[in-house]
Amino acid sequence: MYRLEAKKPSTCSSDPLSGERARASLAALRGLLTSCYGPAGRLKQLHNGQGGSVATTSQSAALLAGLPVSHPTVKVLTAAVRNHVACFSDGGLFTAILCCNLVENVQRLGLTPTTVIKLNKHLLSLCTSYLKSEVCACRIPVDFSSTQILLSLVRSILTSKPACMLIAKEVDHISTLILRAFLLTIPENAQEHIILGKSIIVPLKGQRVIDSAVLPGILIEVSEIQLMKILPIKKADSFKVALFCVSLSGDLSDTGEGTLLVSYGVSLENAALDRLFNLGKQLVSDHVDLVLCQKVIHPSLKQFLRTHRVVAVDRIGVSLMEPLSKVAGTRPIGSLGSISPSSYGSVKDLCIAKFGRKHFFHLIPNKATICSLLLCNRNDTACDELKLTCQTALHALQLTIKDPYVLLGGGCTETHLVAYIRHKTRNEPESFLRDERYSQSELQLTAEAFCSALESLAGSLEHDGGEILTDGKYGHFWSVQANLPSAVNWPDLPSRCGCGLYSSQEELSWSFLRSARHPFPPQTCLSLEATGSADTLTLDCFTAKLSGLQVAVETASLILDLSCVIEDTN
Amino acid sequence: MAAAGSVTVALHVAEVLETIVSGCLGPEGRQVLCTKPTGEVLISRDGGRLLKALHLEHPVARVMVACVSSHLRKTGDGAKTFIIFLCHLLRGLREITDKEKDSFLFENIQTYGRHWKNCCQWKFISQALLTFQTQILDYVMDHYLSRNFLSIFSSCTKERTLCRNSLEMLLEAYFCGRVGRNNHNLISQLMCDYVFKCTACESRFEEVLEIVDDCFVELKVSVTGLPVSDSRNIAGLVLQRDFSVYCPADGDIRIVIVTETIQPLFSISGSEFILNSEAQFQTSQFWITERTKAIVKHLQNQNVKLLLSTVKQPDLVIYCAGLNGISVVECLSPEELSLIQRVIGLAPFVLPEASSQYELSHTALVKFCKPLILRSKRYVHLGLMSTCSFIPHCIVLCGPVQGLVEQHEDALHGAFKMLRQVFKDLDLNYVMQTSDQNCTSGPRIYKNSRESNELPKSVNCSIQRSYQDTVVKNKGELAKTQTNLKVCSNLIVPSIKLEKNVLCSTPKVAVTDSYQTDEALRCSSPNKGRIMDDHEPFIESNSANSKTENTRREISYENLQVKKLATKDSILPLRYKSIAMCSSQSYYFSSIPAGCVLPVGGNFEILLHYYLLNYAKKCQQSEQTMVSRIIANALLGIPKILYKSKKGNYSFPQVYLRALQALQTSQPMISNQTGLESVAGKYQLLTSVLQCLTNILTVDLVINIKRQPQEVDDQDSEEEL
Predict the structure, then answer these.
(1) Does the pTM exceed 0.90?
(2) b/e for B115-146, b at 16 or more Cβ within 10 A?
(3) Is B705 an interface residue toward A (CB < 8 Å)?
(4) What ipTM goes with this model?
């Protein structure tokens, strides 16, 4: 029922960040997200007391979608992160935690928002221009001649989502599958513009992860009863396909706005059915082997086609239409009248496959960039999580094709950036203070807040109470186990840095993360030998992380700039 | 329930609003977060939007918000300044009333009586304000302020060539007050590029701005989830939908527009189709199919490669188009259609009645037509070949959250509105007395008034009766004619429209404020005494009342000339009729030429403040002097807020002093600000505020009605039936 009511006046509160409530909710969100971050992150269980499914997750996409948020500033933050995830799939937690850290750190500073926002912008552009520059030591160009880097990227994404519940062997298997599925979507003879195909993810619950597979072509799920009706498929080199987007149920489509008067005894249904049979006859005479229909096929027509040994599958749904037309290499037919022979497509083979308890109708194309990724996992929630992770990984691979770089993961990019910023702001502050009226101390304070936000982001990768060290040469991230016997000389212990690029045999000067140390220029210009020597690296998607960094700083500036909140209470 | 409308109440309301909007004013202003009932968040610094989001209940506040939104509809700028200026004006007025309170205290009057009396006084003031707005303001603008105007056009000739540099400065200043402080550079640069890219010929900016302003929604694409720095301009038109069929084609592409389904229907509205047999049904279906194919084939023969449709086409049409290599875009909105038609001047394709083949006349060429993918959403990207001065481009606005993107959209749209205003001349007209002494030297006849000597109690009754229709009449009359000359009786204020240039007796506005220096005021002024000797007792009492405490107007900055004038304000509602010869008044018509700008940072306000004070000094009519002073002082409120956070040499007193010194020595004012702002916009703002203030002042009583909103009643009654 629609009712027009006078609107209640809104409530207006000034300085939204200074309140205790705002601070508490921001801290709560940060704590929640930080505990999920990284391969060792803790899982969260989302459930509704009234029933429904329970989701176990540590991904920002699933987490923020289900999280009720009341405070307006936190709403802005979560909205920004969700939009980022919708664009790039990856880097949601990174963005959210960095943004929270920035807001909290800046608030502690006590500088005016104007100054901080301007300086943060400068620091951000320092970071982005460094990350995009050739001398950047945390960016690796992707070598497409080998699968090593791409595989490492996929592995890193998979391992950073512990809710997928994969063991090491399964991670290897799934990451190979994802990479293979991705490679299948790349057209063979690429011209200037590559149009990537599509990997359709088909989740299968309750199966072993090892049973997951990549199949070329499309899997259409069919029920067992439907399957009984489909005759044993004859063997042939190629099958002729007719793909319909109109309904073949014999309904009378729109007749116009006027009235339609039907004389007594005239049956339009029969007329429509006659028309369908004519169509069927044409299909049979054109030697069509397979009829696919987005909507419904009239049972009589189905029967007719079956008697003529034509396989008919209906109710395909609009989402599969585009990949299907690619597989068959044709456009959907929108006419019930005469069909031009050019609108038939063909597939190489069709067969019936059974995976788990489900039956599928499998279309194998001659040459198309469509494949199906069959994902199995033990239970519902792990399967959902795995599906989401695979989508993320596929998306990250697509983004990597566009911009062929990857960033070092495992906290190394962050600590390296911190070293770079500290060095720049301490030794070359002129470049920041050139045209603005800021003092050196304001710059130092803001830069320190920015750096410590990045550092605590890197530090939140460690959940088991371990210590985090950085080295004085590369500025990388090294984690040490907690509760070490004091007798051991602990700086000798870390064997590899967070990303796995460097090992500790070299002479490095260690220091604790977040401890005061003299700024040093981190070694720039990554040597290619180093990347070649390390076998497994932890890598991040370049585009997603760069954009995440920008979004985090921009959103933090936005939140810091708020002077009051007007809440509509209607 | 009725509540007395008074300046104090209005001031309270305005002050509350001021605290909200003043935080967002100027380049140092901060953002406000609005949450919608749906849970979405909106980031805004736009005064109009904030005021709307507050859902104010207070009647005076609602009047103010209504005034602001009508002002915004006209100019697209200045909502925050509106509130601040209004607040300062009200403050100025209250100061005067506080001083004048005693002069209205008749010992035997009752509270209600005093209220009515007060209202009466407000009405006089509001009339004085109107007179100011219609006469003095235009005069001051034309005579004094215009000396300082700059122009955004690079040459002063008829050809208005826009100077890129000035446009950048103008936009920069506009966006400084509208979007977040780390984005305004980017957005203003984006818009500047956009304007220059879209304009085919430098002298035809106005047309371009008109199209962009009208069709802004169709010319922008918003993308959330990307950083703001990814915003950009792209050539061509982006339609916010995907192709129904896309057939890649190279070279110039011929397009047609259709507004109806190509497939014929069984029956059109209002007709009847009689089916007598199944065969007939099948034949007609066959005919429909064949006919559709024939039309699409015909289009293909004419080399048409793209079909734009305002309606959804049946599957058959899509299928046929795909077979014939024609791309189809369906469901264009009427706005998109009208934009495309404006740009390429293409009329919709009319389906041929018979299947006879004839030349298609309604086709046009586009340079390209391809899908555009933004954030994994597909759009149609058309390279229209423009036939007018507008070369289509689209603005892609990115931002991490929807609320921010919306803010940028609003700001851009407002900027186009503002630019349109800049390109318009603004008419000024005013009456100037050829001899300044006209008012005092002209023959004055004190008209005997029935009421003037009667007891206030009886007066009240007559006011009560006559009040309402007077106000209504007043308003209508004022809006329509802007008559400058009114007769002003003590109680009833009919506005009389006068025929100009005819020798006639001119009723004159008569809110007399004796605004004099200490010394002059001690006694009842001699000329008054002379004029009104037949009403000696009445005048005596008035002048007795006017001997109020000597209050000093606080003008906080030393070394000012203003300060020397220890003023004593008294408002004496008198009624007299002045007969002036119309021939002694001349009407001036002038204008603020298009493209007039002043540097930002309160320059307009300080200049106008200075000239108004100068004018007030010269002015003989005391009520005008008072009004000018109030307005002049209220104007300073805006630069005060703008310079609030600045220190040392850039603090407000310093800036103000430097400006005054420069003005007194007739040197150009040096501004440390780089932006520009439109004079016409500021002028319109000033007049809108004054109109709003008169609106508020003329209302004496707010009556709260208990009736439910009409819509609810209708809904309920329908359901019961």
Answers:
(1) no
(2) bbbbbbbbbbbbbbbbbbbbbbbbbbbbebbb
(3) no
(4) 0.88
